Amino acid sequence: MKNITKEYSNGEVTVVWKPDSCIHSAICIRGLPQVFNTKASPWVNIQGADTDAIVKQVEACPSGALSYYRNGGEVPGATKTDVDTVVEMMKNGPLMVYGNISVKTKDGSVERKHKVTAFCRCGASQNKPFCDGSHVKIGFKDE
Q1: Average pLDDT estimate for 48-56
Q2: Coil, helix or strand for 95?
Q3: For residue 23, what are the contacts with CB-CB under 8 A and spacing of at least 6?
Q4: In angstroms, rounded to a whole number, what is the distance separating the alpha carbons of residues 111 and 18?
Q5: Mean pLDDT to the nearest integer, 37-41
Q6: How far apart are CA 49 and CA 117, in angstroms?
Q7: Cα–Cα distances in Å, from 42 out to 24, 35, 37, 105, 121?
Q8: Taking the CB of residue 109, how many other CB atoms lie within 10 A of it?
Q9: Residues 56, 109: Cα–Cα separation, whole Å
Q10: Which among 13, 75, 123, 140 could disulfide-bond with 135, CB atoms 3.0 to 4.6 Å apart, if both were Cys?
Q11: What is the pTM of this model?
């Protein structure tokens, strides 16, 4: 994978988008369409809402593909959560893991994840072990 990262800033907050992590749930688009619009280029209109509304919507991203950091001295990075780790199986979709975890990949590297991580259940992801939304394309259904 290319590990592309794009940033969009309104001066107060910077939204970070990692397309390789996106599971295309469209929660961002449905929740704040004046900011997140896949028919526009760029697809993030950071001026489309106030900072608090943008932050609230980004925090609802189930895959962690969208994150943010406040401008003005804060160091960018993942926000750690202090909750117990919770695992949720999404109907016809990924395995969602909420909390701070370490993922050891097949090459032996360890990746720290915070907040929420979506794992592939369908086997079609091109970004294993993480979900890339391929379950929608192949029509994956729970048995």
Answers
A1: 95
A2: strand
A3: 62, 63, 65, 93, 94, 118, 131, 132, 133
A4: 15
A5: 93
A6: 26
A7: 16, 10, 8, 32, 31
A8: 8
A9: 32
A10: 140
A11: 0.62
Residue with tokens 């360890």: 110
Quick one: tokens of 62? 């189930």
pLDDT of residue 140: 95
Structure tokens at 15: 């939204």
Sign of CA dihedral 60, 69, 71, 82: positive
End-to-end CA gap in the chain: 30
Structure token digits, residue 12:
């107060």
What single-letter amino acid sits at 32? L
Using CA atoms, how far residue 75 sits from 16, 17, 41, 43, 79, in Å, is 13, 17, 28, 25, 11
Strands 13-17 and 66-70: antiparallel
